[in-house]
TrEMBL record:
It comes from Symmachiella dynata. Belongs to the universal ribosomal protein uL10 family. Part of the ribosomal stalk of the 50S ribosomal subunit. The N-terminus interacts with L11 and the large rRNA to form the base of the stalk. The C-terminus forms an elongated spine to which L12 dimers bind in a sequential fashion forming a multimeric L10(L12)X complex. The keyword Electron transport does not apply. Pfam families: Ribosomal_L10 (PF00466). This is Large ribosomal subunit protein uL10. GO terms for cellular component: ribonucleoprotein complex; ribosome. The gene is rplJ.
Length: 172
């Protein structure tokens, strides 16, 4: 392959990736073509993209985009996967696919410039996603007010009603 062709492929990969800094690397080499096609179709529905590219060209494209954390992972057959809601949702999706498809292997990834091993991606897939964390924070922020309302509406509310009635009788 000529240098010009390599540069064209690398620039195409760089354009596809855009400014994404969080990617996963998988090894789909042991998966048959029909299953790989079904995987790509299902990932596309969830706005997750996958590209199979030669490692040296992937390194070239990623280094030009400022992503060098994947360099140690890009060995052997590799496909780059990115997109979805966030990196946690992406890792959950790929972990589910790796369990469903024999031969699909997660090799690692990168988050905020940090290299992740396959075990790190597995741990990341078990952590709460962005929306789950937002709902947990909202619940924690609202819990003191909820406890106060619960106390006023619960048995404490009856006591406060009796205290109020007693104070009104004393005023008369």
């Amino acid at each position: 392959m000529s240098k010009y062709i390599k540069e064209l492929i690398a620039s195409d990969v760089r354009e596809r990736i855009g400014d994404v800094q969080e990617l996963l690397v998988i090894d789909p080499s042991k998966v048959d073509a029909i299953t790989t096609n079904q995987l790509r179709l299902d990932l596309r529905k969830k706005e997750i993209k996958m590209v199979l590219v030669k490692n040296s060209l992937a390194r070239m494209a990623l280094n030009q985009a400022g992503v060098s954390a994947l360099d140690p992972i890009l060995a052997g057959p590799s496909a780059l996967v990115w997109g979805g809601e966030d990196i946690v949702a992406l890792s959950k999706e790929m972990a589910n696919w790796a369990k469903q498809i024999d031969g699909l292997e997660i090799k690692g990834g990168t988050v905020e410039g940090t290299t992740l091993s396959a075990a790190d991606v597995e741990v990341l897939s078990k952590s709460p996603g962005r929306l789950e964390l937002i709902s947990q924070i909202a619940g924690l922020a609202l819990s003191p007010g909820g406890q106060l309302v619960g106390a006023l509406l619960g048995p404490g509310g009856k006591v406060s009603g009796q205290v109020k009635a007693h104070s009104e009788r004393e005023e008369e």
